[in-house]
Structures are given as structure tokens and as C-alpha cells.
Design a protein that fits this description.
- By secondary structure, this protein is an alpha/beta fold.
- It contains eleven helices and 25 strands.
- Strand 3, helix 1 and strand 4 form a beta-alpha-beta unit.
């Protein structure tokens, strides 16, 4: 089977925002407690954070990490997580039916976040919280000193302001599962007033308004329009959330997830353009895809861990090789939409829907999905190039889908083009004709040759990339069921 792609170094679609390579840590399950934070662990630093986890996060070079939620944030009082740890309250978290000990709060998270080379993307509570609460959190974090809350931060040992520049105005506020969910009118008004106060407090911050919780919500579309009419001039981004699943063991339909995501992005981007025109605005609203991933194993197994405990072990996906291919397809879609999507957060980072897993008191290891995400984070920075694909296709429940998924990135140095390629044909190799590039293939990393449902475990992490030797640019054959990263040194 043969496919063809045409890509040229001057065919720039858009500059890729480094924030496209971001992730998410929520106070959910074991993401924080026994995830990034476990005092007493053999690798724990003096602040209680696991160094073995940090060593797996650092290579990703994540631009931002979203925190503290997620559903959790809609019932969270940020004041519970500051000051003397011995005096912090233990509370019932109604989002995830667990106990929250508040041993990690904004100060600890910001310190950890920057220790892995990332910046915090902070969410404010617009469920039980108010605009005043949000503005006060911003004052605590970003004001130098001389006010009650900035001086309170200094008294807690943080002399310099955190300088957090990216903020989410709540989370999934149209969801009936959300603590104190809102109608579009209610949320739009609250987002407007919150944004107004926050920007009066610190005019340098950028804000993300909540889009609908997902594309299948009955409120989708009308929610976005109503919210934007209220706060279009107050925010810079609108959020999208989507998770993809293979509940029916139908791998070809599952691997159409990239096309499904592409349609979602284009639909929301069009709504933003329509509201811009309706309002006669001169500014553009960009997209923050701040929750995306594969998520279905834990729910399919109908697990229900004990409630009201610390670090309730929920949503711990065992990702297989097929899931890694799906993540590769989603990554390609995000790169190909870099003109509108400026922020994207793989949800989440550790233990919960995560590429990194831990055993309490034991080892940390990587899931199958870690590898395409690592490759994208490492090689996906620069300019997204337009890619014309000519590929045989297959029919599935989504429709007609090409076997080849592709994205191309011109490096910031301008001398390398990286091709991200998924062969979705599970039975046949795909011979690739590459037009428009002159140069030598200097690197080729691939995930291939595994069973679709093979997984990594603490004892055996067999699913890992291999490296092929240099080959002629005219002689590329993508193995069946494979993720490929091919780097071309331009002549």
C-alpha cells in the first residue's frame, strides 16, 4: 500500500505556541498524593515531592501545567491550602468523593511546577467561589507586597510574587456533575465580572473562559455563543475538553479520533469568528484545548474504590499500544490546528488518565502514551507546516478516514523538518512518497511491532520507541500500526 504527502519548508500554516505542549495536575485520585507528592517515599525531596516522578516529567519540557482542577476547583477554597500545614483543614471533596488533606496548595504547587521547568496555569473557583475570591487569589499570588494578602504570602515564606500569567475562569460550568454548575447566562455574567476584577488587579494576566464541557453536551454551541457575548472583550481564550474511547473494541473507528477532534476544533473556531463579527470586535479569541486524552478503561471495568479516603485511586487507566497510536493521531490534529489552538493540556500527568504512573512507596514508570507525547514535546516546537496527504482510506463508524495521519513542523532553527506520522493500517505497511523536501533523514523514532492491547507495567515496560538508522528520503516505509517521528535535515 502506498501513500503520498507534499510538504515544503515555506508552507507555514502557523507558528506553534509552546503552550500547545502542556499538561494538567488536578486534586483528583492519586495525581497529587502518592503521585507528585509523597513524604516518606525513598526519593522524596525535603518538601515531600517524589524525585523519581520529577525525573520523568522534566524531559517533557511542559510549557504549562494546569492546576488544581478540573471538577475539584468548583468546590475548592484556596485559603485551605496555605499557611502552616499542621493547621490546614481536612475536607470532603464532593467532586471526587475523597478526603482532601490540603497538604499541597498554591505555594507548594508553584514551587514544584517550576522545579520541573514549567509554569502554572491556575484555575479559579466559579462554582462555590465568587469573583472576589478569584481576585483575592490573584492578589495573594501576583502582588509584590504592601497589601493584606500579598503580605500574607510573604509571611508564608514566599517573598517574591508567583507572577502567574495564565488563569482559567472555572471549569466545565455547564456540566450537571459540576459543583454549583451554571446556565450560560449565569456563567457568562460571572466570567465577565471575574475577568474585570482580575485584570484590574493585574492587567498582564491572560484568561480562559469555559466552553461547553464537551461536544455532545445539549448546551454545546449555544453555550459558547452566550458566554462569549458576555465576556468576549475580557478573555483571550475559550476552552475545549474532549476524551476519546474504544468501548466497542473497534480499533479503526477509535483511530478516527484525530478527525473527530479536528471537526470539534473547527466548529468552535467558527463560533468564535461569528461572535467576533456579531460584536464588531477587532480582537480574535483563540482556543485552549486544556483537557484532551484517551479515557475509557477504568470506566469500562466499573471500578468503584472506597470513598472518603486520601488519594482515592480513581481513573487509573492502563493504556495499551492502540491508545498510544490514538494519542499520536490527536497530537497531529493539534499541530495541524496551531493557527487557532494556542494551548493544549494532556489530561492528566500522573496516575489519573496519565502517561506517568506510581506505586505508593514504590517505583514510577511510563505508560505507552508517554512516548508520542514526549516526541511531540521534544520535536514539535517551531512552525506548523501545511501537509497535503494522498492516502488510501478505510470506512468506519465515523466515516471515511485515511490510513495515514500526518503533521509536519519546521524547527525554530529553520534547518529541520519533523514529520509525525501514524500508519493506521493494522494489517499492512505503508510505503510513503514524500514530495517537497530536499535533505537527509537524520533521525527516525518509531513505536511499532507490539500487540494492540499490550501494556506497560511496573515490572515490564516493553512498549518503548526504537530508533532506525539513517535512510534515503525516497525510501520510507511506515510499519503497520505504527507511530513514527522522522526528522529531515534540509539541504
Amino acid at each position: 500500500m502506498q501513500a503520498k504527502i507534499h510538504v515544503t519548508p515555506d508552507g507555514v500554516l502557523s507558528k506553534i505556541d509552546d503552550r500547545l505542549f502542556s499538561s494538567f495536575v488536578e486534586h483528583m485520585g492519586r495525581a497529587v498524593y502518592t503521585g507528585i507528592y509523597e513524604p516518606g517515599h525513598p526519593t522524596a525531596d525535603p518538601d515531600g515531592f517524589r524525585e523519581d516522578v520529577r525525573e520523568l516529567v522534566r524531559p517533557l519540557g511542559l510549557a504549562y501545567i494546569r492546576y488544581p482542577g478540573g471538577n475539584f476547583v468548583s468546590g475548592y477554597n484556596w485559603r485551605d491550602g496555605i499557611g502552616d500545614k499542621d493547621k490546614r483543614p481536612v475536607r470532603r471533596d464532593l467532586a471526587w468523593f475523597a478526603l482532601e488533606p490540603n497538604q499541597v496548595g498554591v505555594n507548594e504547587f508553584v514551587t514544584w511546577c517550576r522545579s520541573v521547568g514549567s509554569e502554572p496555569m491556575m484555575a479559579v473557583n466559579l462554582g462555590t467561589g465568587t469573583a472576589k475570591d478569584a481576585a483575592e487569589l490573584l492578589e495573594y499570588c501576583n502582588v509584590e507586597g504592601g497589601t493584606e494578602l500579598s503580605d500574607l504570602r510573604r509571611s508564608h515564606g514566599y517573598e517574591k510574587p508567583h507572577g502567574i500569567k495564565l488563569w482559567c475562569l472555572g471549569n466545565e460550568m455547564d456540566g450537571p456533575w459540576q459543583i454549583c454548575g451554571k446556565t450560560a447566562e449565569e456563567y457568562g455574567r460571572l466570567a465577565h465580572e471575574t475577568a474585570k476584577m482580575m485584570k484590574w488587579m493585574d492587567e498582564t494576566v491572560e484568561l480562559v473562559a469555559c466552553g461547553s464541557s464537551h461536544r455532545q453536551m445539549p448546551t454545546f454551541g449555544s453555550w459558547e455563543r452566550t458566554v462569549l457575548r458576555h465576556c468576549y472583550e475580557d478573555v483571550e481564550y475559550l476552552s475545549l475538553h474532549s476524551y476519546y474511547k474504544d468501548l466497542d473494541k473497534d480499533p479503526y473507528s477509535f483511530l478516527s479520533c484525530g478527525e473527530q477532534m479536528d471537526g470539534f476544533i473547527k466548529e468552535v473556531a467558527q463560533i468564535c469568528r461569528e461572535v467576533k463579527g456579531e460584536l464588531g470586535s477587532s480582537k480574535d479569541i483563540y482556543l485552549s484545548f486544556d483537557e484532551w486524552n484517551v479515557w475509557y478503561h477504568f470506566r469500562m471495568d466499573k471500578q468503584d474504590p472506597e470513598k472518603w479516603i486520601v488519594a482515592r485511586p480513581i481513573e487509573e487507566e492502563e493504556y495499551n499500544f492502540l491508545d498510544a497510536l490514538a494519542v499520536g493521531c490527536l497530537i497531529n490534529t493539534l499541530i495541524n490546528n496551531a493557527d487557532t489552538v494556542k494551548i493544549a493540556c494532556l489530561a492528566q500527568l500522573v496516575n489519573v488518565l496519565a502517561p506517568i504512573m506510581t506505586v505508593p512507596g514504590g517505583p514510577a514508570w511510563v505508560e505507552t502514551t508517554y512516548w508520542p507525547f514526549l516526541h511531540a514535546c521534544r520535536y514539535g516546537r517551531g512552525d506548523a507546516l501545511s501537509v497535503e496527504i494522498g492516502s488510501p482510506s478505510y470506512e468506519c463508524s465515523y466515516g471515511t478516514v485515511p490510513y495515514l495521519s500526518a503533521a509536519a513542523v519546521l524547527s525554530k532553527s529553520g534547518d529541520l523538518v519533523t514529520l509525525f506520522l501514524v500508519n493506521r493500517n493494522l494489517e499492512e505497511d505503508l510505503r510513503l512518497q514524500l514530495d517537497g523536501l530536499r535533505g537527509d533523514i537524520t533521525e527516525w523514532h518509531t513505536l511499532e511491532g507490539f500487540g494492540l492491547y499490550d501494556i506497560n507495567t511496573p515490572e515490564s515496560q516493553k512498549i518503548a520507541p526504537s530508533t532506525r538508522g539513517a535512510c534515503d528520503i525516497s525510501d520510507i516505509t511506515l510499519p503497520k500500526a505504527s507511530w513514527n517521528v522522522i526528522r529531515v535535515k534540509l539541504k
